[in-house]
Design a protein that fits this description.
Elements: H1 2-14, E1 34-38, H2 46-57, E2 61-67, E3 86-90, E4 93-96, H3 100-111, E5 119-126, H4 131-135, H5 138-148, E6 153-158, H6 166-189, E7 202-207, E8 220-223, E9 231-238, E10 244-251, H7 260-265, E11 268-274, H8 282-292
Parallel strand pairs: 1-2, 1-5, 2-4, 5-6, 6-7, 8-11
Antiparallel strand pairs: 3-4, 7-11, 9-10
Helix pairs in contact: 2-6, 3-5
C-alpha cells in the first residue's frame, strides 16, 4: 500500500518539469488554503518570515506557530512539562517556548482548535536536511508532529553540503519559497477528497544553493529517498577534568543513486516522501522476521 501511494505521488509531482504547471481539480479545498508555519530556527528567523510573506502574497491564509528560540537539531523531541510559555507578539504569530513539535502540538490544539489547517509547512530552514541530518532535524520533526495528527505536512530547507555561508543561503531562500508556492499549487490542483497529500505521507523538500551568490534557480526536481550516509560525525577529546571537547566534522561519501544528497549536488530540488513512524520497509521486515522466527520468551 505504501509503495503504491509513493509511486502515485511521484507521478503527481514530477510528471512535468520543475512543477511548471498545474491542472484544475474539483476536489481541491475550497477558498484560500489555511497554512500553519513552524520551523526550528525560531518564530522570528528570516527563513520563516520570508516564507510567511511569500505565501501570504500568493493568497494563502498563513499563521506562524513556531519556537520562541532556536531549536535546531531538536528532532522530534516534545517537552513533558506541566506548563508552557506562549507569546502572541502580533496577529497571526504565536511563539511557543519549546520545540517545533511542541509548537505544532499547541498550534493544532489551540490556535487551530476550531478547524485544522489544510497544511503545515516547517521552514524555510537555514541549511539542508538531507541524509542523517534529516533524522535529527527539528524542521523535519515539526512536519512529523503534524503528520502524527493526520495533518498534511512539508519540511522545507535551503542549503548544500558545504560550509554554510549566510548570504548565498538567504538569497537561495527566495527561489526556495517560489518553488514552495508551485509545490502547494500542484498539490492543491490534484488534491484527493480535499487532502493535499496522501494519508501518512509528508514531504521533506531540500532546495540547493545555485550560483556563487545563491540567486540561481534549480535545474529540476527529483523525487528521492533519504541517503543513508552520516554527513556529520562527532569526535571527543578527554580534557582530563571530567569534560570532553567535541569536534564535529563533515564526512561525506559517494551519494546514493536516487537519493537526496545526489539531487542537491546536481542543483536539483530533492523531494523525499516521509512517514510519521519508523516502520521499516517490506524487505527489512521480512528479513527480520526470518531471523526471529521461532523465538520465544
Amino acid at each position: 500500500m505504501r509503495r503504491t501511494r509513493i509511486l502515485s505521488l511521484a507521478a503527481l509531482l514530477l510528471c512535468t518539469p520543475v512543477l511548471a504547471g498545474t491542472a484544475p481539480a474539483s476536489a481541491a479545498p475550497a477558498g484560500p488554503l489555511h497554512i500553519m508555519l513552524t520551523d526550528d530556527d525560531g518564530y522570528d528567523a528570516p527563513g520563516i518570515r520570508m516564507l510567511y510573506q511569500r505565501l501570504t502574497d500568493a493568497g494563502y491564509d498563513v499563521t506562524i506557530v513556531a519556537p520562541l528560540t532556536n531549536q535546531s537539531g531538536a528532532g522530534t523531541k516534545m517537552m513533558s512539562g506541566t506548563t508552557v510559555t506562549v507569546k502572541h507578539p502580533e496577529p497571526k504569530v504565536w511563539a511557543v517556548d519549546g520545540t517545533p513539535g511542541d509548537s505544532v502540538s499547541f498550534g493544532l490544539a489551540v490556535v487551530f482548535a476550531e478547524r485544522a489547517p489544510d497544511l503545515v509547512i516547517s521552514g524555510t530552514n537555514f541549511g539542508p536536511n538531507v541524509a542523517a541530518l534529516a533524522t535529527h532535524s527539528g524542521t523535519v520533526g515539526g512536519a512529523v508532529a503534524a503528520l502524527e495528527q493526520g495533518v498534511p505536512a512539508i519540511a522545507l530547507s535551503t542549503g548544500g553540503l558545504t560550509a554554510p555561508v549566510p548570504g548565498p543561503i538567504f538569497n537561495a531562500m527566495r527561489p526556495t519559497d517560489d518553488f514552495a508556492v508551485k509545490l502547494v499549487e500542484r498539490l492543491r490542483a490534484h488534491a484527493a477528497n480535499g487532502r493535499l497529500l496522501p494519508e501518512d505521507v509528508g514531504l521533506n523538500v531540500n532546495y540547493p544553493v545555485v550560483g556563487a551568490d545563491g540567486t540561481g534557480t534549480a535545474v529540476g526536481a527529483s523525487l528521492t529517498t533519504q541517503d543513508p550516509q552520516l554527513i556529520l560525525k562527532a569526535g571527543y577529546t578527554d580534557a582530563g577534568d571530567g569534560t570532553w571537547k567535541v569536534n564535529v566534522d563533515l564526512v561525506t561519501a559517494p551519494p546514493q543513486k536516487g537519493g537526496d544528497v545526489e539531487a542537491i549536488g546536481a542543483d536539483k530540488v530533492s523531494i523525499t516522501p516521509i512517514s510519521p513512524n519508523w516502520n521499516t520497509g517490506v524487505v527489512g521486515f521480512a528479513r527480520t522476521a526470518s531471523v526471529l522466527a521461532g523465538l520465544r520468551p
